[in-house]
User: Fold these one by one.
Assistant:
Number 1:
Amino acid sequence: MARPSLMGATALWWTVAASVALGLSAPAALSSQSAPVRTTEVYALRYGTLRNFPVYALVAGADTARRVDAALMVWLVRRPDGRNVLVDAGFYRDKFITQWKPADYRKPSDAVKAAGLEPKEITDIVVSHVHWDHADGLDLFPNARVWIQRAEYTHHIDSAGRVRDATIDSVDAAMLARLKDAGKVRLIDGDAQEVLPGLTVYTGGRHTFASQYVGVRTAEGVVVLASDNAYLYENLSTRTPIAQTLDSASNRRAQERMFKLAGSPRLVIPGHDPEIFVLFPTPGNGVARIR
Ligand SMILES: [Zn+2]
């Protein structure tokens, strides 16, 4: 599909940059905004920063004086079968912007555009858990099926779309219920479920009642997208549980399992670490190809 008129200058530039990186000719890439990929590609997309976030709220037992500029991210999986999968959807509603005052903020849908896709081209979203900064943006992507653990959904949201556990924000509970009523939500039953070929979800991180993380098969090996089941590289490198978990021992075991699943240690990606964009600097502009 040729839709060059929809492209902003930035998206256009990144398409050219990506085509150069792939060894494609620029004119071929320009003929289509979302040229099919030949192999599964995984990206971290940054949509903002929570500056000076206390590390002790992320890493259990950390010094209370330490701070980190926590990265706000969603993750994109582009597949040769044409499905474009997001892991988590970020947030965009004014109440969260006002309360949390993110720096360098752009809507998660604009972060997707920076990676060369239109929001309507997202076909699936795997929600790791119901927190506002991971689930609020689900309705920015009009054509997406939403994949969430059945236990995560039913623990937090009742049949009328009301909050059953205040872990979820009421507007997000109502929004998820609307998506479910519209037939857009797929409930997943438990651990090690392959929701698409080569894309498998795992439970046990216990960040929330039934939080899940994702393994994506790629040419470089399985990439594990931990989301908040491991906030920072510090959790992973020291096997220290996240500060917010319902079960520290389970969280530590989940982190150990992530390394068994992953093709290499560098392919385990934590949920809020700004270092990701240093370790994986290309293509840039808040878009990091994981490989
Ligand atoms: Zn969370």
Number 2:
Amino acid sequence: MKPPLLLLLILSSAVASTAQQFKEAPKFYNAAECPPTDTAVHVAMTLDATYLRGSMAAVLSIVQHSSCPQNIIFHFITSSSSNASLLRATISASFPYLNFQIYPFSDSSVAGLISTSIRSALDCPLNYARSYLAGILPPDVGKVVYLDSDLILVDDIANLAATPIGNDAVLAAPEYCNANFTFYFTPTFWSNPSLSLTFSDRKACYFNTGVMVIDLNKWRDGDYTTKIEEWMELQKRMRIYELGSLPPFLLVFAGKIAPVDHRWNQHGLGGDNFRGLCRDLHPGPVSLLHWSGKGKPWVRLDAERPCPLDALWAPYDLLKPPFLFDS
Ligand SMILES: *[C@@H]1O[C@H](CO)[C@@H](O)[C@H](O)[C@H]1NC(C)=O
Ligand SMILES: *[C@@H]1O[C@H](CO)[C@@H](O)[C@H](O)[C@H]1NC(C)=O
């Protein structure tokens, strides 16, 4: 005997409320002029239940705007406490042709180094995985594009990956030299000459660590993970900054990075950290939209209180509406 339709409806919505269900994305093919697939573009992102919907949208936007989508290899870093097989199954179901790996990141490797920041979401251990990519990814991956999960690309990621890093830099990212750099560190930091001297011989500018092109070979040679950890250890003893994983990156790299055109990080669309006000685009062209800040487009869309620019994220949302059956 078949169960009545109403019962099926109730059951399927119960399933949807415990695990998110995603639609399958179309398959995207390489253009004829693509180089052989062994010249890969490597992309690293974190993956967890909270930001899964954002990650799925980001992946879709990347393959959709790529001329050579089959040359992209995704490296997903997930917390060792999350269900990797479920995440793997979710990615595979929506992107059956995606070339990807999942790597567990041990929360305990960084938990002892995290001091609380002004925004608790920034204290999640997985947020610090970007400092450990050189050790997590296989040694034959020499260069990676690191991306946050709250962004979409509207341009070919190969152009971002091809950013020249040069001989002197380890990573490339869009720099913002108009931002008041003083703000990112505490008066304790600036009033201590041995600390503030860190920036004395460089033109340090703010950069956002949500979009970076990293030369992993140079990172490994210079053991930059240890240099970042040393600042985090100092932060535990004396409060030298307020935010989470960003300031140690600034301490080690600000003023020493290769530039990336600002079109590759139209950041801040999540609004400010305190009131979550809507933000507008910065002037100039757009290749990447980044909902950094407190508000996330999927949360605001669900609450039916979206910011105007959230409409640009919505077309990449793969979440199945709750009323759709799993066919
Ligand atoms: C992980 O998810 C799978 C479903 O894909 C489930 O069968 C399994 O029990 C889950 N494991 C844990 C530890 O929750
Ligand atoms: C930068 O911010 C600090 C304190 O946050 C302030 O004292 C300083 O005047 C600011 N500098 C500029 C150039 O706005």
